[in-house]
């Protein structure tokens, strides 16, 4: 963080006497002489600043060091997580300058500016800021990690996107822009369309977006990013740039650029700021051109373990026992974007040992796993799920992962594999664990096959987390109170929280997402009901199971702990309302919600 300190850094006309920060810390008995010498030796080896080294070695807490600097320099310490940052003020200096010197502009007045600095003793940064801003610089000390997060939020690429879009639109309008040549020249990195796409992906990575939507409208082009499950929109007036963007993306994904009447799917990989991003691209003809949706998968982040997914401890132990069985089938269900693939890969990663032969059949292959034989489905050449599965069974597998049970043939092959000595993992698009059985029966899968092979069904959703930096207690409103009375909850709701909105959560009150789950293990009674094709009895027995906790109860428990909000709990309960009503009717307490 810092190496040395000046006695009066806020007075630009006064001479600056430098004092080594280490000596100052020893003099004030914050650290010992021995700790200083050890830190100096480590600093010489690592090349880091002394303050950073002291913190890394555990000789001083970061907050204590910041408070110490604030007191010695007689400048304020500012907590950026709660400071009301203004984008136009922060952008008084260029992003490159802010990141190089670890500074952020907090106030910009007529005669002076207030600047937050991770290292307020950096004289080069101080002089450069005075030169650029041409005003007296007042300093404040801020936490470096908070500063970097604030820079990521404030220097979003929206203005750069608009500028590049305008540049591309002007080139297209003037007729000087050779689109055909650009599309064939990957090296044309300075072309506006290339830089626009690069900026678009950098902005999405910075915002931790899971999807990018490019949607041409009659007069404008809409670019939307899905962040924590919610779409955020940017509207561009340069409608004519849409075909150039779509054509370049098609080339990257090796799609047919001449075909604009039919949907196409593809994928490509890009590197963005040292992150390897796998992009799944889907195009669809719409009224005003072609719409594009890109799913972004950060391969650099690795695969999460089951412990990181948010399972309740008891449920996690039961799931671990289930996936280690020698044969049978475990299904993961939920709507698109609910995290099913992440759960499957986490389970597969735990099972991936040298003693096990694992084959996956996917469309597309989303994550690469060593030692696992992963097969990409290719419908155009007849390589569908059923065909690959039949071949995979002749490859002597121990474990099979089927990306999705889409049709009867795939379901039957998977179910039969599960009763012939293989362990099968797969997904089904349904709203609940109990609804999965109905879906398979509707496909035509025989009940006796499910009874003999199906071990368990996991249903899941992703709910938004309350931002921990701006969370405050709150009381349910009238609508939420009515809903709580309807669901007959048994939780202590004293821990309810809601986010007020702050810099860290972009004033949404939410930051990140967490999974909520229900785990239905099939027992003998449920299997008997399936053999009789008696779905009503199966539902009744499943809901009466002591180990089965529906999704809406799981998310309500999270709400009671302040992890998420009641509004998120109500949203999830809407997906599984039917199952809740059945359970209440069994208890003779039907309530209309």
UniProtKB/TrEMBL annotation:
Cross-referenced SUPFAM superfamilies: EspE N-terminal domain-like, P-loop containing nucleoside triphosphate hydrolases
Alphabetized GO MF terms: ATP binding; ATP hydrolysis activity
Ranges for domain Bacterial type II secretion system protein E: 393-407
Record keywords, A-Z: ATP-binding, Nucleotide-binding
Any one cellular-component term (Gene Ontology): plasma membrane
Transmembrane segments: none
PANTHER family in alphabetical order: MSHA PILUS ASSEMBLY ATPASE MSHE, TYPE II SECRETION SYSTEM PROTEIN GSPE-RELATED
Family: Belongs to the GSP E family.
Protein name: MSHA biogenesis protein MshE
Native source organism of the sequence: Sedimenticola selenatireducens
Lineage of origin: Bacteria, Pseudomonadati, Pseudomonadota, Gammaproteobacteria, Chromatiales
């Amino acid at each position: 963080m810092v190496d040395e300190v000046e006695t009066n850094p806020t007075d630009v006309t006064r001479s600056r006497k430098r004092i080594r920060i280490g000596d100052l810390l020893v003099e004030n008995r914050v650290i010992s002489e021995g700790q200083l010498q050890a830190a100096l030796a480590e600093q010489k080896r690592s090349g880091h600043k002394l303050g950073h080294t002291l913190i890394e070695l555990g000789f001083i807490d970061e907050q204590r060091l910041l408070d110490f600097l604030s007191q010695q320099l007689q400048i304020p310490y500012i907590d950026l997580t709660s400071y009301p940052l203004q984008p136009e003020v922060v952008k008084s200096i260029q992003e490159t300058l802010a990141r190089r010197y670890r500074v952020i502009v907090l106030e910009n007045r007529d005669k002076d500016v207030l600047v937050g600095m991770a290292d307020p003793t950096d004289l080069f940064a101080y002089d450069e800021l005075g030169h650029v801003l041409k005003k007296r610089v007042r300093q404040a000390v801020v936490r470096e990690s908070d500063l970097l997060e604030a820079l990521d939020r404030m220097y979003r690429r929206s203005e750069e996107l608009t500028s590049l879009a305008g540049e591309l639109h002007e080139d297209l309008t003037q007729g000087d822009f050779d689109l055909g040549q650009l599309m064939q020249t990957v090296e044309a990195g300075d072309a506006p369309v290339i830089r626009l796409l690069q900026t678009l992906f950098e902005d999405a990575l910075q915002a931790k977006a899971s999807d990018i939507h490019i949607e041409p409208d009659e007069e404008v082009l809409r670019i939307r990013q899905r962040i924590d499950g919610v779409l955020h929109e940017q509207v561009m007036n340069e409608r004519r740039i849409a075909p150039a963007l779509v054509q370049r993306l098609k080339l990257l994904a090796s799609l047919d650029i001449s075909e604009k009447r039919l949907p196409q799917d593809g994928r490509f990989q890009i590197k963005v700021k040292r992150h390897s991003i796998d992009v799944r691209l889907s195009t669809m003809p719409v009224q005003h051109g072609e719409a594009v949706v890109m799913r972004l998968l950060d391969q650099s982040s690795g695969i999460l373990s089951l412990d990181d997914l948010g399972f309740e401890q008891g449920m996690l132990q039961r799931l671990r026992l289930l996936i280690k069985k020698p044969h049978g089938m475990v299904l993961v269900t939920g709507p698109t974007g609910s995290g099913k693939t992440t759960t499957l890969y986490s389970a597969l990663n735990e099972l991936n040992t040298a003693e096990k032969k694992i084959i996956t059949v996917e469309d597309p292959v989303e994550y690469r796993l060593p030692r696992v034989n992963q097969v990409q489905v290719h419908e155009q050449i007849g390589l569908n799920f059923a065909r690959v599965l039949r071949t995979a069974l002749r490859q002597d597998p121990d474990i099979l992962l089927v990306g999705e049970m889409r049709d009867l043939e795939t379901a039957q092959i998977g179910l039969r594999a599960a009763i012939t000595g293989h362990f099968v993992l797969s997904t089904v698009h349904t709203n609940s664990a109990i609804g999965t059985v109905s879906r398979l029966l509707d496909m035509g899968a025989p009940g006796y096959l499910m009874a003999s092979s199906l071990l368990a069904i996991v249903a899941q959703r992703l709910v938004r987390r309350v931002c921990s930096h701006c969370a405050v207690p709150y009381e349910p409103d009238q609508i939420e109170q009515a809903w709580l009375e309807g669901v007959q909850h048994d939780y202590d709701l004293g821990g309810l929280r809601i986010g007020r909105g702050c810099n860290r959560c972009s004033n949404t009150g939410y930051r990140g997402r967490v999974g909520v789950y229900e785990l239905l293990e099939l027992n003998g009674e449920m299997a008997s009901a399936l053999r009789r094709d008696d779905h009503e009895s199966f539902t009744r027995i499943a809901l009466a199971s002591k180990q089965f906790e529906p999704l809406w109860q799981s998310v309500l428990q999270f709400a009671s702990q302040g992890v998420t909000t009641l509004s998120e709990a109500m949203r999830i309960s809407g997906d599984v309302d039917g199952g809740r009503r059945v359970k209440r009717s069994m208890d003779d307490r039907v309530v209309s919600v």
